[in-house]
Design goal:
alpha+beta, UDP-n-acetylglucosamine1-carboxyvinyl-transferase, Chain, 2 domains, four-stranded mixed β-sheet, binds uridine-diphosphate-N-acetylglucosamine, peptidoglycan synthesis, UDP-N-acetylglucosamine 1-carboxyvinyltransferase, cell division, transferase
């Protein structure tokens, strides 16, 4: 397994261009199965999760190529609706294939998906949504078999605004007969991006970005070329890293409107932020201030995917902050690792009480999941001495070569890969 070695204590500085959004690209790649022909998607980052999705599409019979940041998928030869168990297990987002495959082939076999170890991550809302559209679902152990002649539009209310369930139902309903409405839908920007992509192919969807989405089923979609939105979580990660290292960073290709809650929180902590079109400038000359209370909730509230990164800044802030995690129950795994670096954090159920310390110290720590790993990298950059982050494959799921990206901002960070038969170098 790769490791990252970080010499901390250097403020980040310079300019960086933000990658395309993983969480927008994944459902869009899955949705390409809804059309027969060649789809071209631009600004798709090189990530482990994207590789897995493209491998699944190849297993289903598609041709798929990813060169530079463009993905070309030809779905004309797709023949299978069986997603292999091993690939299903390696990534939670494999569940996105369910909606498109049932819509295109009238059947799909999948398995319980895998993903980050951040909580239970059920799929009941996905299944109930598809059943409401007329799919018959049989669960045999981890295997899920789903049939439908042609899906029929329905009124679907989600008990919780799940991002993935909203997207899966949208994709299934696009080719269903009649009208579908999803109420209490998730409002994340990635859902708006999926709507734009599907509508570019000829779908008739309105309402993404609000809590009610309406989909008028169409007979057929047409291939298109599309560019995904900038990654708001990568943007937020770099913003927090700039502030935690007391640096000065310019981020290009961002969408500041997608980061209103983070910008607000960082300003309250005393971080200087200037916004100009798609550019965000972040600077932090002094020790940040603690923030009394932050709660993660569905968009547009503070995102769970930035909770661990922000916690590093608060661990260095002046005063006591409280962070409440409302989305995933297992999302404080980074706390133990941060404590080993000198952070003073106490967890009680879903709340973390963070007493800021003047400095953190380098240590050997383990990335337990994607965003926790990103937080440890920020902690390493902001601390005194050397930090080794292990289990980097978690970070590679969502950040395109994080060491190259941060190296451009002057970070002293290198990756070491195992050498066969000879342990880890150096
Ligand atoms: C997506 C994001 C992920 C982010 C999360 C919340 C992608 C690829 N991933 O994940 O980065 O952290 O949104 O913003 O876009 N739930 C159920 N039943 C279901 C589905 C979800 O109970 O059928 C629960 C989950 O256990 C969790 C909550 O709903 O507690 C939110 O999950 P959801 O919004 O579905 O997240 P994902 O789509 O998996």
């Amino acid at each position: 397994m790769d490791k990252l070695v970080i010499e901390g204590g250097k403020p980040l500085s310079g300019t960086i261009v933000i990658q395309g959004a993983k969480n927008a690209a994944l459902p869009i790649l899955a949705a390409s199965m809804l059309v027969e022909g060649k789809v071209t998607i631009d600004h798709v980052p090189k990530l482990l999760d994207i590789d897995v999705m493209l491998n699944i599409l190849r297993e289903l019979g598609c041709r798929a190529e990813h060169s530079n940041e463009t993905v070309m998928i030809d779905t004309s030869s797709a023949a299978s609706s069986h997603v292999p168990e091993e690939l299903m297990r390696s990534m939670r987002s494999s569940i996105f294939l369910m909606g498109p495959l049932i819509a295109r082939f009238g059947e799909v076999t999948i398995y319980q998906p895998g993903g980050c170890a951040i909580g239970e991550r059920k799929i009941d809302l996905h299944l109930r949504g598809l059943m409401a559209l007329g799919a018959q679902i049989e669960e045999r152990g981890s295997r899920i078999v789903c049939h439908a002649k042609r899906l029929k539009g329905a009124e679907i209310h989600l008990d919780f605004p799940s991002v993935g369930a909203t997207e899966n139902i949208m994709m299934a309903a696009v080719l269903a007969e009649g009208l579908t409405t999803i109420s209490n839908a998730a409002r994340e920007p990635e859902i708006q991006d999926l709507q734009r992509f599907l509508n570019t192919m000829g779908a008739k969807i309105i309402g993404a970005g609000t809590d009610t989405i309406t989909i008028e089923g169409v007979e057929k979609l047409a291939p298109c070329r599309y560019q995904v939105i900038p990654d708001r979580i990568v943007t937020g990660t770099v913003m927090v890293a700039a502030a935690a290292t007391r640096g000065q960073v310019t981020l290009q290709n961002t969408n500041p409107a997608h980061l209103t809650s983070l910008i607000h929180v960082l300003r309250r902590a005393g971080v200087q932020i200037a916004v100009d079109g798609d550019i965000i400038k972040v600077g932090c000359a002094n020790r940040p201030r603690a923030i009394e209370r932050i709660v993660t909730s569905p968009y547009p509230a503070f995102p769970t995917d930035l909770q661990s990164q922000l916690m590093v800044l608060l661990a260095l802030a002046d005063g006591v902050s409280v962070m409440k995690e409302n989305i995933f129950e297992g999302r404080f795994k980074h706390v133990d690792e941060l404590s080993r670096m000198g952070a003073d954090i106490r967890v009680d159920l879903n709340a973390a009480f963070i007493r800021g310390v003047p400095r953190l110290y380098g240590a050997t720590v383990e990335a337990t999941d994607l965003r926790a790993g990103a937080a440890l990298v920020i902690a390493g950059l902001a601390s005194h001495g050397k930090t080794i982050v292990e289990q980097v494959h978690h970070i590679d799921r969502g950040y395109d070569r994080i060491e190259t990206m941060l190296g451009r901002l002057g970070a002293r960070i290198s990756r070491y890969s195992p050498i066969p038969n000879n342990g880890i170098a150096p």
